[in-house]
UniProtKB/TrEMBL annotation:
Record key words, sorted: Endoplasmic reticulum, Heme, Iron, Membrane, Metal-binding, Microsome, Monooxygenase, Oxidoreductase, Signal
Main location: endoplasmic reticulum
UniProt similarity note: Belongs to the cytochrome P450 family.
Compartment annotation: Endoplasmic reticulum membrane; Microsome membrane
GO MF, one example: heme binding
Cofactor dependency: heme
InterPro entries in UniProt: Cyt_P450, Cyt_P450_CS, Cyt_P450_E_grp-I, Cyt_P450_sf, Cytochrome_P450_fam2
Membrane association type: Peripheral membrane protein
Pfam families membership: p450
EC number: 1.14.14.1
Protein name: unspecific monooxygenase
GO cellular component labels: endoplasmic reticulum membrane
Amino acid sequence: MDLVAVLVLSLSCILLLSLWRQRSGRGRLPPGPMPLPILGNILQIDAKNISKSLTNLSKVYGPVFTVYLGMRPTVVLHGYEAVKEALIDHGEVFSGRGSFPVSDRASKGLGIIFTTGSRWKVMRRFSVMTLRNLGMGKRSIEDRVQEEARCLVEELRKTESSPCDPTFLLGCAPCNVICSIVFHNRFDYKDKDFLNLMRKLNENVAILSSPWIQVYNNFPALIDYFPGSHKTFLKNYSDLNQHFLKKIKEHQESLDMNNPRDFIDCFLIKMEETEFTTEALINIVNDLYGAGTETTTSTLRYGLLLLMKHPEVIAKVQKEIDHVIGRHRSPCMKDKSNMPYTEAVLHEIQRYIDLVPTNLPHAVTCDIKFRNYFIPKGTTIITSLTSVLHDSKEFLNPKKFDPGHFLDESGKFKKSDYFMPFSTGKRICAGEGLARMELFLFLTTILQNFHLKSVVDPKDLDTTPVANGLVSVPPTYKLCFIPV
């Protein structure tokens, strides 16, 4: 038998073994499309819009189904009832973190976002408690956000009503809030180190949302042997970590055990305990810095774009600002309860943009029988937040931007259990309270001081995301900030 025949026979055996393994496991898992050997269902999923592909599959296989991303079975939960049942009713079991190979390779299982098990519980508990002690959700943090909002307004004034891309400036503001909590200092918007950090962060978010990363995550063996944007991501992540390590060493030299200044100091004081290592701290800081900046930045960018497309909404928000706040003092969180329309607009922006369409991957921490299906321990779970935020039973016109989705008949703000932009359950975003505060204060401060003028006819503005992977990345655009 010649070499070619041996290779063909070997490959055939591998393919048959792969198909058998996939089919043998499918009898216990929820139903789903038949996977191909090795490739799984990857050809049935559009890497440019995974969420839409999962919605189409749910129409065939129901709210709970299985897809194979490569050779790995993944259970998809689609719709409010299925997502709630898993993440809230069975929150502990579904609190594991599913595999995300590119990020796993970068963080080495440390930090908060991509870690799991007892390590995750220890780090999350510490981080949430420390952020609260440092003022998250309290007046002390509100003062910082208000200060940064005023700095942002001054930078926007410097554009002198000329067309500008707001991406960088809208990123600086929430980034500086996180820096003040983690490092106990903010940066000037022209600081070279700050500019470099922002560039790397923005680049990494774009990479994580690109189709190629979805391919690499499904076939992790490619990460080590093939070139691509993932190499840039890993390099940027490493560079960010080096910067954070430098900051940590500076803190160690000036640490006062009885007077912690910021998040890093609080962590250093705990360093004698097992999980509290320098490497863990570096990755937690990276998580806080990245997640705490990007979610608010993208929401603000998308929000301004949607508002320009709907000038009648801007007019109503500014009327409410004039009535409740006026023009001569900074907005504060106490104002929010008296501004139902503005609150509805903020909720509708987050609902409509669907920032993290398929959520971060979860995993079950033990075997579980879920809706008469058996899901083995460690199985990756995808929860479609799109299916919740765009549910037509809850939101009359889910594909239409309409603040009325969060207003009752008398114009009062109306809460919805379907509002899950920060996920829900055990893995809900640890910085949700800070993000809500930033969105309200930044947006109201901007609209208190400026009219937003589009450089094209508002009807021609395209709000379609340019990438729809991990994050829905808004398109670039320019606008003019016209002082009120």
